[in-house]
Amino acid sequence: MKERIITGIIMAILFLIPFYLGSYWFSAFSLILAIIAYYEFTAIIKVRFRIKWFVGLIGVIFLFLPLFSLGIEQIQIKVLIALVLFFITATIFNEEFSIDKAGALLIGVLYIGFGLVSLAEARLDKGLLWTLSILLTIWTTDSGAYFIGRKYGKRKLAPKISPNKTVEGAIGGIVTAIIIGTVLQFILNTFSNYFETLIITIVVSIAGQVGDLVESALKRNFGVKDSGKILPGHGGVLDRLDSWIFVFIGLYIIGLI
Questions:
Q1: I need a labelling partner for 164 at 20 to 30 A (CA). Which of 54, 124, 192, 201 fits?
Q2: Measured distance CA(142)–CA(213) in Å, rounded
Q3: Section 135-157 average pLDDT
Q4: Could you tell me if 112 and 60 are in contact, meaning their C-beta atoms sit under 8 angstroms apart?
Q5: Which residues lie below 8 Å from residue 160, measured CB to CB, with a gap of 6+?
Q6: Distance in angstroms (rounded) separating the CA atoms of residues 211 and 119
Q7: Dihedral-angle region of residue 49 (phi above 0 means left; psi in -120 to 50 means alpha; beta otherwise)
């Protein structure tokens, strides 16, 4: 527990400094997180340091380029097309690189790349308080789901994927997020009105929980407990960002970023 708390404090400091500074500082920090998460993801799916691994890494980096340069907003769709063509072609000339691995690697590049690009874009375009409110919603959902599920949880939410998660905990997480979100709106006035606060809070809370289950399913499929060991007591970076990635991709898709 002591190790977990110390790691948590260090993580918070390392994150909050570039998050507060914003601009290129946070974009660069998000890219670093994406690179580490990509490394952990490829370790899970057992793709080693060969040309396909490096092409995937370049893909993640290229997805971030619009955050640092002007006039190249269309590069992301070109990166996507190039990656699809490369990974499909690679399966023809390398029997060990199956279509399953190609698909898994492509999903990882886009999942991690677009997720953390969307996080950085939110900080750039929406500002500190808006993005912080989204993150607080994710954190309060996790806390609410854990404590309410532990006390009142009876019905399993996804027993084959995450046996400890319950329906009661999931609902409790959403309710907790709504309560805290309403209080934050009263104090910070981050969103346009309370109705918008309610809708965004529900979307973020549900998406965050789905994101957590998605990574749990991935790790269970490949027989892995944690995505990495870089954060003592917390696992890997991807373990900490699974909810964030899903949330910010979701917010991007529905046009809030």
A1: 201
A2: 12
A3: 87
A4: yes
A5: 220
A6: 14
A7: beta
Rounded Cα distance between 257 and 76, Å, is 16
| CA dist 104 → 53, 236, 241 (Å) | 12, 19, 18
Q: How far apart are the first and last CA of the chain?
A: 37
Q: Are 130 and 190 in contact (CB under 8 A)?
A: yes
**Of 137, 119, 146, which Cα lies nearest the Cα of 205?**
137
What per-residue confidence (pLDDT) applies to 234? 60
Question: Residue 71: is its pLDDT beyond 60?
Answer: no
How high is the pLDDT of residue 228?
64
| 184-204 pLDDT tens trace | 899 888 888 999 999 999 999
Of residues 188 and 8, the one with the higher pLDDT is: 188
CA distance readout (Å), 28 to 48, 97, 232, 244, 251: 25, 31, 24, 17, 21
* CA atoms within 13 Å, Cβ hemisphere of 30: 31
3-state secondary structure of 105: helix
H/E segment holding residue 162: strand 162-166
pTM, to two decimals: 0.86
Sequence-separated (6 or more) residues with CB below 8 Å from residue 96: none
Mean pLDDT of the chain: 85
157 within 8 A of 216, measured Cβ to Cβ: no
